[in-house]
């Protein structure tokens, strides 16, 4: 008996409607046959169970041991909690007792369910809504695909593939070799990939006249690679027929898949990738008698693994990641196939988390309905289509008669299974002769001719009577930006060593891992010992990072072996953990004075800096993954006894800084450590440093980081706004929300924004500080506010913070507060900013610790906080040898606070103020700071304390040295 109707072949109505199980009676809805693939001594045997009952209310499949013995002559034995089933003295199945004379069959190891006689409609959906003619051809080209030639009308195909009448006939020449001609219409980077896969190089690149193809950089690249560039005639999209038709085919199939699965258009990129996967294992006109996959790899594909896009799926949760009473499977949605391994890609529709998995159970007849508001939505065709620019001299083509469909890809990954490259229908011929010579006199090629007949079911449909719908032309740069996003994200950082070594950049990561291990061996970080008894063994993991330069180009593949410090025990594995770190304020002060005094700025990197400190404690660590491969032998029951600190250990930072390097200069550092001299600093801590020595200025920006962050949270194509927060909105901790926020990455998003706010973006400091207050219990309203901040950054990703010599070297401060701005507890917010060289070097936006009883008190508390920062900045400036005879000037816009700071007489209105805030009086008296009045209209710290209108926000940003 089974509750799964989809497993049953030859499904019919049952003779018995009800059956008795114990004390209850359950209903039988159908009966049929279920086929299993039995693995015995390496030989596969098909076993069909007849008269299997369909009982929907069951929670598991039930198989009678008596039925096995009687029908198939099998013998069952029971030993303890195990049941063993034999056929001719060969073990064919086994199970583990679960109580009440029931045994759980070990299907994962001995049995595999196969799906014979799958319905043609289900096959049609699995192969990405391939046409009837294509499916007929496909059954002879692949394995695991049974199609009897009958296919019912598919409404999803009609909705997704409807098009205008075909264009006029034409003739064309075909390429005679793989990569002989590459047709391109806004496609992804593939040159280096296909060269590695095939050992052959691209000979001809055919494109239209778009600016992304016709530019100096592109021309130099093609010339360097020896690739001939063929361009289509302006206003003749027919010459780009291969690329256009390929895009159209993918988009039509993807649209049909989305329609069939009732999915919102935001999943279009995953649908296109899955359609591309199916296209590679489908028949094409260019390749006779085989699929593009077989042409590329030489292997005939087996399609038993294909599943229906968008169906419900249950992913097995490893026992290491769940407790005893946790569910053993997680419900997700199937969205495609893995690129660098055999497995499936699945998404959690709530959190948008994407995982790769092998152990998956599919419910292919059940789809998620993820349309907005649960209602059907028409697709915005402008997302998938638009005219291709075929203009001369890079003009814009506004003619919409020659419409073709293009696609953009802003998804994080491009999944081509087994590294198969997508070939258009007309790109490959059976002729495999290799001709490396390129004839420069080749004629301009035209679109290949292919006769297309209207399907019989559409013969009665009056195509000529349809109105000629004009699709909107999209800005071509939308596609270019999407391409750039895809190029950036093609190089994803692996999470595990398995992903690293088996991925497309496996050779780079293998070299990086080798370099890291050899570095530890050279440094004598550990020694291999027998695992001691009664000792805490710290675990470890590999962390992989792709280092990029200021232009976003890959500079280095970095691997780090990191100890899992959270498994250390205080007092045994570590004692002290404090270690000093550089503050952004210090870095900005140095850069500001470098601009003013024209100092040189060089950058150095200490190789494996964290492993220089010697451990005081006795720490043992597990053998890391990949370790035995590099040592050339197995180390069972061995561990690593650490001699030196390792990344991740709680005391590593302290030990790294405790080495006596206080008085070292550049040469001494090189003598003590293995150092890399990186030359002039242009990229540090995720900040791009741009210098204009002629004008005496240095500018900082985080464009690369911000763009990456926006892509991470799917906000890279959001509509920009002018301010970080809405002036008319009110946010507090008690905002009601019916939305479950546990799976929303609110805290992670706040952390990402906080990094930018602390480094180069004082304009979002107040907004991010406000969001930090809701991390403990966020609501949907707070998440919308987070996304608004990202929308603001979307329009200002290129903002720069500049310092120039023209503004002098004085340190100038501004402080402000908003009185009772927090509507929940009526606390005020303090804000200050300090300037050097016309740019902000230090700023803060922070809620005050106590409730102020007046505006004077609130401003006084803000002035006190600013005074503390001024004293610290003064010490840095003094250490740099820069004198400030008159102290640091701090501007305040409240007369009461200024008078209170200069008058220490006892007053009934100030007697309750905490003594710590009166610190400001002493530093004023000593001459370390001077407090002066600044009109409220000119107070540039205003946007650090409250939400301000656009004009005020832009004025404050400009005043602190930001160019938005």
From TrEMBL:
The aspartyl protease (PR) mediates the proteolytic cleavages of the Gag and Gag-Pol polyproteins after assembly of the VLP. Signal peptide: none annotated. Keywords: Aspartyl protease, ATP-binding, DNA integration, DNA recombination, DNA-directed DNA polymerase, Endonuclease, Hydrolase, Magnesium, Metal-binding, Multifunctional enzyme, Nuclease, Nucleotide-binding, Nucleotidyltransferase, Protease, RNA-directed DNA polymerase, Transferase, Viral release from host cell, Virion maturation. Residues 389-440 are annotated as: Disordered. Residues 389-404 have a biased composition (Low complexity). This is Retrovirus-related Pol polyprotein like. It comes from Argiope bruennichi (Wasp spider). GO terms for molecular function: aspartic-type endopeptidase activity; metal ion binding; nucleic acid binding.
């Amino acid at each position: 008996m089974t509750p799964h109707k989809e497993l049953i072949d030859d499904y019919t109505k049952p003779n018995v409607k009800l059956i008795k199980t114990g004390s209850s009676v359950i209903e039988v809805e159908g009966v049929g046959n279920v086929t299993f693939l039995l693995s015995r001594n390496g030989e596969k045997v098909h076993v069909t169970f007849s008269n299997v009952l369909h009982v929907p209310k069951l929670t598991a499949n039930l198989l009678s041991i008596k039925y096995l013995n009687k029908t198939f002559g099998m013998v069952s034995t029971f030993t303890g909690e195990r049941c063993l089933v034999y056929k001719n003295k060969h073990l064919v199945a086994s199970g583990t007792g679960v109580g009440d004379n029931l045994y759980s069959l070990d299907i994962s190891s001995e049995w595999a369910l196969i799906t014979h006689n799958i319905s043609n409609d289900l096959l049609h959906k699995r192969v990405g809504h391939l046409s009837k003619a294509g499916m007929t051809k496909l059954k002879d080209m692949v394995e695991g695909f049974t199609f009897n030639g009958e296919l019912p009308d598919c409404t999803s195909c009609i909705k997704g593939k409807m098009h205008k009448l075909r264009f006029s006939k034409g003739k064309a020449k075909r390429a005679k070799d793989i990569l002989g001609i590459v047709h391109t219409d806004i496609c992804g980077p593939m040159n280096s990939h296909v060269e590695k896969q095939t050992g052959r190089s691209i000979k001809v690149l055919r494109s239209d006249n778009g600016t992304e193809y016709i530019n100096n950089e592109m021309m130099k690249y093609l010339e360097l690679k020896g690739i001939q560039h063929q361009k289509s005639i302006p206003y003749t999209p027919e010459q780009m027929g291969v690329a256009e038709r390929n895009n159209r085919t993918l988009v039509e199939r993807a649209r049909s898949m989305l329609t069939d699965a009732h999915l919102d258009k935001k999943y279009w990129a995953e649908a296109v990738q899955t359609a591309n996967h199916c296209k590679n294992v489908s028949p094409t006109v260019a390749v006779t008698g085989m699929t593009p996959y077989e042409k590329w790899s030489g292997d005939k594909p087996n399609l038993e693994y294909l599943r229906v896009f968008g169906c419900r799926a249950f992913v097995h949760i490893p026992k290491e990641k769940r407790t005893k009473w946790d569910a053993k499977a997680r419900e997700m949605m199937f969205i495609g196939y893995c690129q660098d391994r055999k497995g499936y890609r699945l998404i959690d529709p709530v959190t948008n988390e994407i995982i790769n998995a092998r152990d998956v159970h599919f419910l292919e007849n059940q789809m998620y309905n993820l349309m907005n508001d649960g209602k059907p939505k028409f697709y915005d065709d402008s997302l998938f289509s638009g005219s291709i620019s075929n203009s001369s001299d890079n003009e814009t083509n506004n003619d919409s008669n020659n419409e073709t469909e293009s696609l953009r890809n802003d998804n994080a990954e491009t999944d081509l299974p087994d590294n198969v490259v997508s070939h258009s229908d007309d790109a490959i011929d059976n002729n495999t002769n290799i001709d490396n010579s390129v004839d420069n006199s080749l004629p301009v090629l035209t679109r290949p001719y292919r006769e297309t007949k209207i399907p019989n079911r559409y013969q009665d449909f009056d195509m000529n009577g349809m109105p000629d719908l004009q699709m909107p032309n999209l800005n071509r740069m939308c596609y270019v930006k999407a391409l750039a996003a895809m190029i950036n994200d093609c190089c994803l950082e692996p999470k595990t060593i398995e992903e690293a070594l088996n991925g497309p950049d496996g050779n780079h990561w293998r070299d990086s891992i080798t370099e890291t291990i050899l570095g530890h061996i050279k440094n004598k970080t550990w020694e291999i010992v027998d695992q001691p008894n009664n000792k805490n063994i710290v675990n470890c993991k590999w962390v992989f990072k792709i280092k990029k330069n200021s232009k976003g180009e890959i500079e280095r593949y970095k691997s780090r072996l990191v100890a899992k410090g959270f498994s250390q025990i205080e007092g045994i594995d570590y004692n002290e953990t404090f270690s000093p770190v550089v503050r952004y304020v210090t870095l900005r002060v140095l850069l500001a004075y470098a601009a003013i005094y024209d100092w040189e700025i060089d950058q150095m990197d200490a190789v494996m800096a964290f492993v220089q400190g010697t451990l005081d404690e006795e720490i043992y660590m597990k053998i890391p993954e990949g370790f035995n491969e590099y040592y050339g032998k197995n180390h069972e029951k061995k561990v690593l006894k650490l001699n030196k600190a390792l990344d991740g250990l709680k005391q590593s930072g302290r030990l790294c800084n405790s080495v006596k390097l206080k008085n070292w200069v550049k040469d001494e550092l090189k003598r003590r450590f293995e150092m890399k001299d990186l030359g002039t600093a242009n990229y540090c801590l995720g900040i791009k440093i741009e210098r204009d020595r002629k004008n005496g200025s240095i500018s900082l920006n985080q464009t690369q980081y911000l763009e990456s962050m926006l892509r991470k949270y799917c906000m890279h194509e959001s509509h920009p706004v002018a301010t970080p927060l809405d002036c008319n909105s009110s946010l507090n901790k008690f905002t009601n929300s019916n939305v479950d926020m546990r799976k929303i990455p609110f805290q992670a998003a706040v952390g990402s924004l906080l990094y930018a706010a602390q480094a180069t973006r004082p304009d979002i400091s107040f907004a991010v500080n406000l969001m930090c207050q809701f991390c403990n219990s966020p609501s949907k309203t707070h998440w919308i506010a987070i996304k608004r901040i990202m929308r603001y950054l979307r329009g200002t990703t290129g903002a720069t913070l500049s310092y120039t010599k023209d503004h002098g070297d004085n340190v100038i401060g501004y402080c402000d507060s908003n009185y009772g701005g927090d509507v929940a507890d009526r606390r005020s917010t303090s804000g200050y900013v300090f300037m050097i060289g016309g740019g902000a070097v230090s700023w803060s936006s922070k809620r005050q610790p106590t409730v102020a009883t007046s505006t004077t008190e609130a401003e006084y508390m803000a002035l006190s906080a600013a005074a503390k920062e001024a004293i610290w900045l003064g010490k840095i400036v003094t250490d740099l040898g820069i004198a400030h005879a008159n102290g640091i000037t701090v501007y305040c816009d409240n007369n009461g606070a200024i008078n209170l700071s200069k008058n220490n007489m006892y007053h009934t209105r100030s007697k309750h103020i905490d003594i710590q805030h009166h610190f400001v009086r002493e530093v004023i008296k000593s001459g370390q700071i001077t407090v002066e009045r600044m009109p409220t209209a000119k107070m540039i710290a205003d946007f650090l304390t409250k939400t301000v209108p656009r004009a005020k926000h832009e004025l404050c940003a400009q005043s602190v040295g930001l160019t938005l």
